[in-house]
Amino acid sequence: MKRTLSVTALGIAASLALAACGGGSDNPLGNGSSTAGNVPSGTAAAGTIRVGAANFPESELIAAIYAAALNAKGVKATTGDPIGAREVYLKALKQGSIDLIPEYAYSLLTFYDASATQTAPDAVRAALVKKLPAGETILDAAAAQDSNTVTVTKATADKWHLKTIGDLAKHSSEVTFAAPSEFQGREQGLKGLKRKYNLVPKSFRALQGTAIAQALKNNQAQAANIFTTDPSIKADGFVVLQDPKHVFGSDNVIPLISKAKATQQVQTILNAVQAKLTTPKLAAMDKQVQVDHKDVSTVAKQFISSNGLG
User: Fold this and answer.
1) Which residues contact 124 (CB under 8 A, 6 or more apart)?
2) CA-CA distance, 232 to 247, in Å (whole number)?
3) DSSP 229
4) Three-class SS of residue 83?
5) Which of 10-19, 86-95, 300-309 has the lowest mean pLDDT?
6) Which domain holds residue 172?
7) Which GO terms describe its molecular function (predicted)?
8) Mean pLDDT lowest for which of 11-20, 105-114, 224-233?
9) Is residue 246 included in any domain, yes or no?
10) What's the pLDDT at 249?
11) Cβ–Cβ under 8 Å, residues 300 and 64
């Protein structure tokens, strides 16, 4: 998906292949793995905030909202094409080729600390603050959450009498699992599912975006990693399996920003956005973008206008 907000010229500096262990869309939500992507390079005018996004629609949407809010209040902000998975965009932030990116609290925490045990929102935030690189900070967490899940069709849930991930683990030898490729190596992924539930699928299908839900719907996969705000869960009647052992924690949306760009004005603007961003609002906007195919920048600007943020 291309964003159509004003775009800064972000050159492609390098393709990475990083191997790390650690949580996500993980997509978005998750920790380290073998992942490749493009790290943007180049410079921006003094004071301009370059807002990055991961390679999935919701991250692009939230990035567009942040940029629209900043521009509406007189702070120049630009967006560009999606950068890649967490391993790639965090490198871009560290190198200074982007200044701000939407993140998910628990996924980011488990990226930095795979052994983290905190799952409640306040505890996750407190632990995350201690793990951030010196030049970065997080702002207020939104009420909006979008967590990783293990999801199945209703037919599969009924056939195998599934309520929890542990129930699914009993059928591991019959399960093809669909998820982004990085899900294989993440603690909020197959590593954590094996460690906590002994869920070891017979095979794995590396897919992105709507192809994941489509594979599940067509029974090309019997289980999938689908985010809680994904419109396909409701549209297709999928069943999200309970996670009593907390492989997936509280993934509240948070802005991750370079301290050098986190002026009081910028913090005030972005924290106001966070205060208005709820899970139902985020899910509704996801549907507009992913199902109704509305332009990302249009949806973002509508959110700013309807919530008095302009």
Assistant:
1) 105, 106, 109, 116, 118, 249, 250, 252
2) 22
3) T
4) coil
5) 10-19
6) 151-240
7) transmembrane transporter activity
8) 11-20
9) no
10) 84
11) yes
Instruction: Pull the structure tokens for residue 166.
Output: 């542990």
Pairing state between β 100-104 and 253-258: antiparallel
Which of these three, 220, 240, 260, is where a domain ends?
240
Q: Show the tokens assigned to 115.
A: 């052994």
51 is written with which tokens? 């807002």
**DSSP characters over 71-82:** HHTT--EEE-S-
User: Hey, what are 138's tokens?
Assistant: 């997080």
> Tell me, what CATH number does 66's domain have?
3.40.190.10
Tokens of residue 290, six digits: 């992913």
For the chain, strand residue ranges (E) read 11-15, 38-41, 49-51, 77-79, 100-104, 136-138, 151-152, 176-179, 203-206, 223-224, 239-240, 253-258
Residue 118: what are its φ and ψ, rounded to 5°?
-70, 140
Residues 259, 293 within the same domain:
yes
Question: What type of residue is 6?
Answer: S
* Whether residue 258 sits in one domain with residue 111: yes
In this structure, how many other beta carbons lie within 10 angstroms of the beta carbon of residue 42? 13
The alpha carbon of 70 is separated from its chain's Cα centroid by a whole number of angstroms, namely 21
Rounded-to-integer distance, Cα 244 and Cα 197, Å: 10
In this prediction, what percent of the chain has a pLDDT beyond 70?
A: 85
User: Global pTM?
Assistant: 0.78
